[in-house]
Amino acid sequence: MTMTETLHTIGRAPPPSFEEARNKRQKVRAAGLDPNHWYAVEYARAVPPGKVVEVTFWRRSVAVFRGEDGALRAIDNRCAHRQLKLSGGRVEGCNVVCPYHGWAYGGDGKLCKVPHELFGKPLPKIELRHYPVRERYGLVWVFFGDPARADATPMPEIPELDGPKPWAKLLVDFTWKAHHSMIIDNVSDFTHAYLHRRFRPFTDSTLTDLRVEGDRVYVSYDTKVADGPLMKHFVDRKRTNVNAMTLCYQYPYQWSDTDGKIKDWCFCLPIDEQTTRAFFLFYFDGFKIPGLPLQMPRQVMEPVLEIAKHVVFKPLLEEDGVAVEAEQDGYNRHWQAPIAELNPAVHAFQALTIRKWEEYLASSSGRLAEAR
C-alpha cells in the first residue's frame, strides 16, 4: 500500500500532486528530478560479472547487469512475455534471462533467445528500452532520460579522485522515506547544528553568501568545521581553514568544499515521491596523525576512513535520516500548514528544484513521459 493509499484509508487527505500544489512548499515536495542527467544508482562492487540488480528512478524499474565481458548494461526491468521482473532472473553470458520461461535479452533490450518451442513462429521482434550506463568513482551511473543527450550531458567531475595520486575517499549510502528535496534542504542548510550536537560536524554557522547562477545555488557559511570529539584530532588545522565552508546545489547534485582540503558530494536517486536513496562521497587531501604535527601516509588513510565510516560518518548521517523521515511524516500530516522557513538558501534550493521540474514537464520528452 502506498502512502497516498494509506492516508486515504485513515481518512486523511494526502499531499497534493505537483499540478495540484498551491504554494512553493507543496510544489517542491511533489516535484521529480529531470531524468536527463546521470544518476548514481548502485555501488560498482554490487554488480560483479554475472549479477543483475533492480534500480528504481521515480517509480521506473530498471534492470542493471554486468555480462561476463565486464560491461554494464541497463534495460527496462520486465520481460515482455509475462511482465516478470528481469532482476529476479540471472545473467547468462552477456544477456539477462527471465526466471519464468527463460527469455533472454541483450543490453540493447532486444529479445535474443527463447529456449522453448516457438510453435512454428519466428522469434518475436521485441525490444525493451535500454539506458546509457557508466561506471565512475566506485558507482554505477544510469541516464534515464533521452539517450541522445547522454554523451553531451556532463557527469560530476572530481579530478581529485582521478590520476596517479587520488585522494582518500569514503562512500556511504542510505535509503530514506523522504522526498529528495528534503535531503537537499538538509545537507545544505547549516541551521540544524542542534541535531548534530554529539558529532559537531559544523557549529556556530553564519550565512555569508548566497548566489544563484543558472542551475546552481552557491552558499557560503562562516562556521567551525569538524569540531567533534573525534574528527578534530585528525584535521590539520595549520594547513586547512576550518572556519568556513562553501556548498553548492549543482542540480541535481550537491557538493561542499572546506578550503580545498575536505570535500564531499551528495547524489540523490529519487525512487518515488517519498523515497530517496542518497549516496554520500567524502574525499580528503590529508589527515594528521593525532597528537603529532605529521601528515598521515596516504596508504593508511583508507583504513582509517573505513573505521571512521562506522564510528562517525554513518551515525552522523543516520541522525539526518531520522530527521528527514520525520519531516516527511510531518508534511504528510500537515501539508496545509503555513510555510515557516527562515533560511533564504532553502528557498533558493526549492525554487531551483521547482523550475527544473517545470522545464522538464514543458519539454517534449517530459510531455511524452508523463503521458505514458
Automatic annotation (TrEMBL):
Residues 38-142 form the Rieske domain. Pfam families: Rieske, VanA_C. PROSITE patterns: RIESKE. GO terms for molecular function: 2 iron, 2 sulfur cluster binding; metal ion binding; oxidoreductase activity. Residues 1-20 are annotated as: Disordered. InterPro entries: Cholesterol_7-desaturase, Rieske_2Fe-2S, Rieske_2Fe-2S_sf, VanA_C_cat. Keywords: 2Fe-2S, Iron, Iron-sulfur, Metal-binding, Oxidoreductase. PANTHER family: 3-CHLOROBENZOATE-3,4-DIOXYGENASE, IRON-SULFUR DOMAIN CONTAINING PROTEIN. This is Rieske domain-containing protein. It comes from Nannocystis exedens.
